[in-house]
UniProtKB/TrEMBL annotation:
EC numbers on record: 5.2.1.8
Pfam families: TPR_8
Reaction catalysis annotation: [protein]-peptidylproline (omega=180) = [protein]-peptidylproline (omega=0)
Protein name per Swiss-Prot or TrEMBL: peptidylprolyl isomerase
SMART domains for the chain: TPR (SM00028)
Organism: Mucilaginibacter pocheonensis
Enzyme class, UniProt record, top EC level: isomerase
PROSITE patterns tied to this protein: TPR
TPR repeat residue intervals: 454-487
Keywords: Isomerase, Rotamase, TPR repeat
Amino acid sequence: MQQQQNIVDVEYLQSIYKEGNYPECLEAVNLFLLFNPQNLEGLVLKAKCEYQLSYGNENADDLLAIAVGSFKEVLKLAPAHEEAMLYLAYINISITDTNLPEAINYCDLLTASIHLDTRIKAITYRQEAYYQTGDIDNALKDLDLLIKLHKAHTVENRSLADHEQGQLYAKKANLYLEYKNNPAKALETFKEGLVHRYKNVNIYSLIANLALDSEDYELGGDIAQIALFSGSADADIDEELITLYYRLNELSRQGIVNQSIIYAMFIALKIYQERLEYDTVELLNFAQHYINIYPDWLIPYHYAGAVLYETKSYSEALPYLQKSIELGGLALGLQRFIEVWYRINGQLPPVAKWPEDSAVMYYNAGVSFFYESESYISNAAIARELLQMRTNFYKISYDGFYDYFYNDKGDGAANEPHIFAMCCNNYGIALSELGKYESAVEVHKRGYSLSPFWEQLYSLSTALLALQRYEEAIEVLEQAVSYSSDYLSFEDYIDLKGKQLLAIYKLDKKDETRELLAGIEEEYNNFIKTCGSELTEQELFTLSEKYIVVQNVRQDLLDGVSLEDATQAWKDQLDKNPDDNSSWYMLMQNYYQLKDYDQCIACADNYQSVKGDAITIDSLQKVHFMRGMSYLNLGNYTNAKENLNILLGTCQSGNENEESIICDTNISLAQCGFALEQWDQCIDFSLAAIACYDRNGWKWDESWLKAALLYADACKATDEIDAAMETVKNILKIAPQNEEALKRKREWKAGGLFSFLNRR
């Protein structure tokens, strides 16, 4: 019974320790040891608490000494206790630098452990102790042993394993360089570790210089390229890389012409153009010089095209970019080529083969494609195709990263978990835009598992909402909202809360929706009241844009109340926030339905003023429709025409919904023309409405009859009597009982043969 009680007590103590509550755990374990002085697990837990409490403590040395004593007490009871020996070795070697022979002895014993992790830690600590004691030969032997152990055992996390292997090779190479004065062996070691890649750009600079020292110009140039691409792109920070460029430049001046070196120089000149005082013409001449030497090498064509592209000299850039792509191309070159080809030819180019390039470079190209190309050249005719292209940039990047992280393919060049995660975010967004929501969800989840950030959760929630997986979306959004203000601005927070509100509403939880809506509104209004004066006009506008989702849910909740009550609710919202564009928009619609056309026009004007250039095409169409129809109903035909013509100009034939708008707008414009006695315009617009029916194969209905009657009336007014009568006959064939058509038939026929006497 006592033994069972001890087990329960130890499990409880360990749970406190795992929670990180070390003072409480130490107090409890000391009490436990009063009654169980030789309990091994209790003694180990006591020592570990003392060790943890030493961190950041002003009495760290004293606490460490106490911890060391406690671990040694454990070894008195259990001389082969591995955890105690590991702690003692680590403390002596990595913290206090004392008792190194004793620590090495612990490590020697631990190398026989059956646990791989324990052996690796022991050898890692021991090689550090050898290094500290100046025993470089044994330190090198331990590094070799660690490298072999890592190679011989399968690891679950290749990214972490590559990072650790890279560190081992770098440390081994530096020992050869600094303590053995053997640069050749150091270079050989660095080369062996390249497959794992190094995280420190300075290591690549060092390798490049070692290779150049040994006259291995191919390797030196290759590594210099990696170094330059790995820099910060800030010449003041990357002084070592600038120095490397000057060395490469000096070699080329000495007549050493090597493509790897030249490629590295191109990279440097492009990234540090201002610091290296190389203007556009000089860089173009540099590229042309190497085009002449290497007419079948894509790199000089690529950089010549890049220089001209960035100066917006598109006609001059196109031949270089096209030649670069024909020779194999690079991802960024393809991005520029697609844009330039479209700018020059007015259509997108066929891409027969996408270039071979790294996952990182395809990610960069995808970002550039979106921000530098797609955002500027996109229009309704090519938007879908551009989206497909952007998706493919990210897909190729994603596939490359995926092969590295999950298929154990490729080298450590793809060992960038955060870039992979960002790629997942952008790729998932593109997939959602294509309507491939299931795939987007999978991609976003993978990205978040690799390197978490709240934007990934936001994008994931978008896909989940589209799939109507509202419960999952709510969980994801709650996780995103839990990020602190260090990551989330208030506008981001409101955006997330709006999506959360929408998901709850979609689950038909009306009471919960109203409760959350009230809470969000209070937070929003308090923020505006407290911080609004500190925000710029643009920041306030952006915040109001994020609030639209919240206001849309409010509108959904108001659907069940009277139009008058809903209108009052939106007026109340305006009292709180006069610049809330959603309130103006909702009031515009409500007043139109209430046939209060003057108020509708005023709200439309205010909405458009507040919204500015950020107004979407759908909203712009609705504004001009409601304002135009309000003016029409008020008899202000000139202003009605102005709005309806703008509405017509925003529409494109082909889409059924757009065709419907086109038809209705043409009929309304025909009415305006009739009222203003602008007969030619009335005829043109009514014919356009009828043509819309014909090309869509729509059944003739009341709207068609209205357009046909307007056409007939305009023809009659312009003395086109035959056309007018023929139109009336056609109407009566379709609708024999149509009173308006019958009325016109009677009146116009009554004029008889002498009706010309009535002509104006």
